[in-house]
């Protein structure tokens, strides 16, 4: 019996790093792939601090020689103050020197992976939101999207915390932790105390993260296990013990607005999620 004709062997929902990597992996194995991403290209996202162990994966994806343009800073480890005295956790090293993590600019990194996927023949549909599932004889047969139906043999859900496919199929996914409240923002200027490596400070109420993401541009994030009564990132973000407490930063506060531009905000955008 001949195999039924479909639009693609694999459809990937979500064009972030996970979705693009899945599409690349499938395309390099000769599969026909369609990738659906609901957002327009270039939308900014917080992050991304990446462990140096990702470099072999970059080679497998075919972007190792291009990723340099998306790196804003590199660092040999992370400062940690959580459950004990402040300490430096190095990534390690070998005969060639210390291993260094990467501070990737997400909009550029996402675009790089999507471009690589398209080079391999992946059909990118963007913006294209998945709106429903197609069923055939009780089995998943494809997707309904904002631009029409797509039939496929395999659907990869790379939509992240939205769990698009699980929700569409009504698959229960109970929360495994309390709801986390996260806020992030940017500060532009100079703070040499944070230039050598990111800083993670945590306790029973949550944690804060501070990192140099590009020259003279720092990202500050605060995650709380419960909603804080009030928060100012410049006041709430812990500084190192030897940091000047009165004015730890020299620069101005920046954060992304809803349209992807920048505005003079301290609190930044609040992001909700379940860990």
Distance between the termini: 45 Å
CATH topology of the largest domain, which one? FAD/NAD(P)-binding domain
Provide the succession of SSEs: EHEEHEEEEEEHEEEEHEEEEHEEE
The CATH H-level homologous superfamily of the largest domain: FAD/NAD(P)-binding domain
Q: How does the SSE layout of this entry go?
A:
Layout: E1 8-13, H1 17-28, E2 33-36, E3 49-50, H2 55-61, E4 71-75, E5 77-81, E6 87-90, E7 93-94, E8 97-98, E9 101-104, H3 106-119, E10 123-125, E11 130-136, E12 139-145, E13 148-157, H4 164-168, E14 179-190, E15 199-203, E16 206-214, E17 217-224, H5 233-236, E18 250-256, E19 262-263, E20 269-274
Parallel strand pairs: 1-2, 1-13, 2-10, 5-15
Antiparallel strand pairs: 3-9, 4-9, 5-6, 7-8, 11-12, 12-13, 14-17, 14-18, 14-20, 15-16, 16-17, 18-19
Helix pairs in contact: 1-3
List keywords for this structure.
275 residues; alpha+beta; FAD/NAD(P)-binding domain; 2 domains; nine-stranded mixed sheet; six-stranded mixed sheet; 5 helices; globular; disordered C terminus
């Amino acid at each position: 019996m001949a195999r039924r004709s479909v639009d693609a062997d694999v459809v990937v929902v979500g064009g972030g790093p996970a979705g693009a990597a899945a599409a690349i992996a499938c395309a390099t194995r000769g599969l026909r792939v369609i990738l659906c991403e609901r957002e327009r290209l270039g939308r900014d996202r917080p992050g991304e601090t990446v462990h140096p162990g990702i470099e072999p994966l970059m080679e497998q994806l075919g972007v190792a020689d291009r990723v340099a343009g998306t790196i804003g800073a590199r660092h040999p480890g992370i400062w940690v103050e959580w459950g004990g005295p402040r300490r430096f956790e190095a990534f390690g090293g070998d005969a060639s020197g210390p291993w260094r993590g990467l501070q990737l600019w997400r909009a550029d990194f996402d675009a790089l992976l999507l471009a690589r996927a398209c080079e391999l023949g992946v059909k990118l549909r963007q913006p294209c939101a998945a709106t429903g599932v197609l069923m055939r004889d009780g089995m998943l047969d494809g997707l309904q999207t904002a631009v029409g139906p797509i039939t496929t043999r395999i659907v990869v859900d790379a939509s992240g915390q939205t769990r698009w496919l699980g929700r569409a199929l009504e698959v229960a996914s109970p929360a495994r932790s309390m709801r986390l409240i996260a806020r992030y923002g940017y500060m532009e200027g100079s703070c040499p105390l944070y230039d050598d490596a990111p800083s993670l400070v945590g306790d029973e109420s949550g944690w804060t993260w501070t990192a140099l993401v590009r020259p003279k541009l720092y990202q500050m994030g605060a995650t709380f296990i419960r909603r804080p009564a009030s928060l100012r990132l410049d006041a709430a973000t812990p500084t190192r013990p030897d940091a000047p407490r009165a004015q730890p930063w020299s620069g101005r506060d920046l954060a992304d607005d809803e349209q992807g531009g920048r505005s003079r905000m301290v609190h930044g955008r609040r992001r909700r999620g379940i860990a």
